[in-house]
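Help: read this over?
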Amino acid sequence: QVQLVESGGGWVQAGGSLRLSCAASGRTFSSYAMGWFRQAPRKEREFVARINRSRGFTAYADSVKGRFTISRDNANNTVYLQMNSLKPEDTAVYYCAAALVGYNWNYWGQGTQVTVSS
């Protein structure tokens, strides 16, 4: 089992940048695929980005491709989401997730708020 704690959210003007971090507990962090999701008010939670366990293969939602970068540091049990060129429509609560098998997201953090003003 793994516990996830996000940090790095906040308020930023459009065009700005933020970096989210997700710290994971446990000794088997490298066994988990990691992902970021977000949920805006009155909307469903949606996929943002994911990174696989070992080789660092990544995937992104079309809405963030070219602006966001997911990365992981297995030595420090942390996954990051670098967000550049932020837009007001990126405003949401961002959640970190972990998957032990495939991309079945079994573990979730508590979320961190990101607000982008125009």
